[in-house]
Each structure stands twice: as structure tokens, then as C-alpha cells.
Design brief:
six-stranded antiparallel beta sheet; mainly beta; five-stranded mixed beta sheet; binds beta-D-fructofuranose; about 450 residues
């Protein structure tokens, strides 16, 4: 029996976003495309919907959107990882998949290797674990999470760490994945910024530059930086937020067989922990996002085209609509699992608000506003739920200058998660927990607005 069946009537469980079969889920781990299958591993507590006893859960997919659960890949069953099998990555070494993860034997957090069979179904931890015996360079015991790449005859890896004051990503190299040479600090946080620990570093080349993505503590927001890498040091020249929503954390990206860089992130719950424990599940993955630098070195985000495979019946589809035509069309929409594609044209100080997950009786609703005058996107959860123990955050962000007079919006609503793509440079993910059905949608505008395109479809 699929353990998810026990949640069949749970109004908050996402249906087309990945969740653990039950229990707790956090970071995506070991993302890899191998022999035609996408593998999603994840931080998993099978014992309950709370953080603890970290395992690597495992699911596979051939299209990035339909996932099949597989047995737990890694469990905390060795002296050096008895307190948790923490985050890491999968690489292909000598034609075989190998996992690098963090083994935790408190207070020690150290890199460990697990060899996979060719099919990525069984895993054998290396006899030499841990493969780095202690953090070098006065780094703290928080020495975890791995990003790796191959260059010439060397494997390189960075980890997330800090020196007690600044966050640091130490760089190492190895030929055999077992003996590692320390090469110095690839990047460390500047004095100007309060970043003490980089969690989940992710490093890759894109469009002739390099990208470093991390979830620094204590901020708990995910940052991308782009800039130059000389083989030892990464010098960022730009930085910005990966996602405007506070629930988004610890993403990981990988390159697939088509050469696309694909990112998946973890979205924490934003309701009281006791509600999560009672629900029996906690944590959800975002949809896969294609990420790439533009020519100016800014990171762009597009939902993976495969997500269209999940689109079902069209509820409304119109072009060149007046506001009142679009309002009428939206009045016929009802659902909590759907996608809205919209291209909205606006001039001057026009404001356009899409009201999502609205309930006429309780007044619950979540709003997304494009303030054309300020070139801002405002995502407001102040009235998302009558349950006071849920997030009431309002996220206000400046849109990229390319938005100008037309905003392209893609809004994925899936029960308690809403992902909002606004133009190519901004994504805002929300978690909402209405106490009523809250399945209605509305459009409210002021000023000069027209709707170039509006498509709403049910999601499978
Ligand atoms: C980020 C994180 C990682 C760690 C894992 C433990 O959410 O704290 O740094 O490897 O989660 O579950």
C-alpha cells in the first residue's frame, strides 16, 4: 500500500509536488540524471513528521515530474554517521555513480563516500569513511554538505562551513574520492554581511561565468552569486535572492543529459509544528526549475518544460482580453490544484492583483500584486488562513527591469504550496493553509491594464 493513501483527505497535502511518503522531508540530495532516470534523494526522517535521525529517502522519475518511491538509500547505521546521514551529492566516477554525504557523529560532521551499483538501487559505504578526518584551516565542526565537479584529472569539492565569524566554502581536490588535498577557502563571507555558516553550497559554470548558491545561516534565505572563478577562488560580482519566500531553503542543482541545469528546493511548512506532527507529513519539494545566467550575469528561472505534462483540463483560455472579460473567465475557475499562465500588460501606475485560494465565507485569500509604477511584486499571505498559527508574511520584491510593460506570470497552486514565477528573474514560493475550501479566483485592477493571455488548467 502506498503510505500516502492515509493522507488522501488531507486538504493541505500537495498532490503534484513531491513529498515524502510520510514523515519528515528536508533538503534535496544527490540529484542526478543517470541512464535515463532522474534520481531525487532527500533528507528523510521515516519515524515521524519531525526533524531527526536523518536518512536519505529516494525516488526516481523518467520525466522529472512523476516520481516513484524507492527504498531508503542511506541510513544512519555506522559509528561515523550514527547521528545522521546529512546532505550531499551524487557524481559519476569512472563510469559509476558515487555519493558524497556528511556523516554525523556529534559533534563531528565529516565527508563520507557511498558507492552505488550501476542502477543506483543499492549503496555500499566506503570502508575508509570518513574520507576527510577533520576540518582544516580553523574551520568549525559544522563542516557539511557537498558540491562537486570534475576538471582534468581531478575531482573538486566544496563544503559548507565557517571559521566562527565568517561563512566559508573550503575547496578540496582528489583523484580517487578517498584522499583529499585542501586548496584553501574558495569563498568566505565579507565582514559587511552577517553570514556565519554556508549551508548547502552549490557551484557550477553557466554562460562563461560561475554561480555559487548557498543557504547561509543565520539568515536562512537562499542566495545566488555570480562571478569569476580562477580555479581556487571565486570572486562574486553580483548576488540576489533565489526565491522570495521564507519557506524555500537548501536547494540543489544538477546538469542533466541535455545539459540543462535543474534546481529543486525544499519548502518548509509555515504552520505550527504540532499541526505538522498531527498531519503525519512535513516538507515539500518545489517543481524543477531550469536555471542559467543571462549575458549580464543574472540568474534566470524557468519552470522545467516537463511540468506541462501535469497540465490537464483547460478551465479557461483567452487572448487579448479586457479586464472585465478576464474577471468573468476567472469567476468560473474553482480548484486547489491548478496552474495560471498570464501575460498582463500595464502602463503608468497601474496595479493588478490576482486573488488566489479565495473563500467568500471566511474571507481567506492569498494575493499576488504587480505594482507597475514601482515595478514591484507583492505576495501577501496576511489573509491566507484563519488559523493564526500559519505564516502571515507579505513579500515585496523589485522586479527585473526587463518586465517593463508586460509581466508574464506562471502560478502553480497545489493545496498548501503556491509557486509564483514573475518574469524570468523572480520566483516567490508561498505556503498557505486555508481553513475553508478557498478554491475561488479573482482579478482586481486599477489603472491601464489589459490581459494579453490568460490560461487556467487543472493540474493532474
Ligand atoms: C540544511 C541542513 C544541511 C544539513 C541537513 C540536515 O537544511 O541543515 O546543512 O546537511 O539540513 O538535515
Amino acid at each position: 500500500m502506498n503510505p500516502r493513501n492515509q493522507f488522501a483527505n488531507d486538504p493541505h497535502l500537495p498532490r503534484y509536488h513531491f513529498t515524502a511518503p510520510q514523515g519528515w522531508l528536508n533538503d534535496p540530495n544527490g540529484l542526478v540524471h543517470w541512464q535515463g532516470e532522474y534520481h531525487l534523494f532527500y533528507q528523510f526522517n521515516p519515524h515521524g513528521a519531525y526533524w531527526g535521525a536523518m536518512h536519505w529517502g529516494h525516488a526516481v522519475s523518467t520525466d522529472l515530474v512523476h516520481w516513484t518511491d524507492l527504498p531508503i538509500a542511506l541510513a544512519p547505521d555506522m559509528p561515523y554517521d550514527r547521528d545522521g546521514v546529512f546532505s550531499g551529492c551524487t557524481i559519476i566516477h569512472d563510469g559509476k555513480p558515487v555519493i558524497m554525504y556528511t556523516g554525523v557523529n556529534s559533534p563531528h560532521q565529516l565527508p563520507c563516500v557511498a558507492y552505488a551499483d550501476d542502477n543506483l538501487r543499492t549503496f555500499t559505504k566506503a570502508a575508509q569513511n570518513p574520507v576527510i578526518s577533520a576540518p582544516p584551516d580553523n574551520l568549525v565542526a559544522d563542516f557539511r554538505d557537498h558540491s562537486m565537479w570534475h576538471d582534468g584529472e581531478w575531482w573538486y569539492q566544496i563544503l559548507g562551513s565557517g571559521d566562527g565569524t565568517h561563512a566559508v566554502a573550503p575547496l578540496f581536490r582528489s583523484k580517487d574520492l578517498l584522499s583529499w588535498e585542501y586548496l584553501g577557502r574558495m569563498i568566505e563571507a565579507s565582514d559587511a554581511i552577517n553570514e556565519q555558516l554556508y549551508e548547502c553550497p552549490d557551484f557550477f559554470a553557466s554562460n562563461n561565468q560561475h554561480v555559487f548558491i548557498t543557504s547561509p545561516l543565520p539568515m536562512r534565505r537562499v542566495i545566488w552569486m555570480s562571478g569569476a572563478f580562477n580555479g581556487r577562488k571565486f570572486t562574486p560580482s553580483q548576488r540576489n535572492m533565489v526565491d522570495e519566500g521564507m519557506s524555500f531553503y537548501a536547494p540543489q542543482s544538477f546538469s542533466d543529459a541535455q545539459g540543462r541545469r535543474i534546481m529543486i528546493g525544499w519548502c518548509q511548512e509555515q504552520r505550527h509544528d504540532s499541526s505538522c506532527r498531527a498531519a503525519g507529513w512535513q516538507g515539500v519539494m518545489t517543481l524543477p526549475r531550469i536555471i542559467a545566467l543571462d549575458d549580464a550575469g543574472a540568474l534566470t528561472f524557468t519552470v522545467a518544460p516537463e511540468v506541462a505534462n501535469l497540465e490537464g483540463i483547460t478551465i479557461t483560455h483567452g487572448r487579448d482580453l479586457t479586464v472585465s472579460q478576464a474577471q468573468t473567465a476567472l469567476a468560473h475557475v474553482a480548484g486547489d490544484s491548478l496552474v495560471i499562465h498570464a501575460r498582463i500588460a500595464a502602463h503608468g501606475d497601474a496595479k493588478t492583483t490576482l486573488i488566489l485560494r479565495h473563500d467568500p465565507h471566511s474571507g481567506e485569500q492569498t494575493t499576488v500584486t504587480w505594482d507597475r509604477g514601482r515595478n514591484e511584486l507583492v505576495c501577501d499571505m496576511a489573509q491566507s488562513s484563519r488559523n493564526q498559527n500559519t505564516s502571515r508574511d507579505c513579500y515585496r520584491t523589485t522586479l527585473h527591469t526587463s518586465v517593463a510593460d508586460e509581466l508574464e506570470l506562471h502560478i502553480y497552486v497545489d493545496h498548501s504550496i503556491i509557486e509564483i514565477y514573475a518574469g524570468a528573474y523572480t520566483v516567490c514560493t508561498l505556503r498557505v493553509y486555508p481553513t475553508h475550501a478557498a478554491n475561488r479566483y479573482q482579478l482586481v485592477t486599477s489603472g491601464d491594464v489589459s490581459i494579453n493571455e490568460l490560461i487556467v488548467r487543472h493540474m493532474a
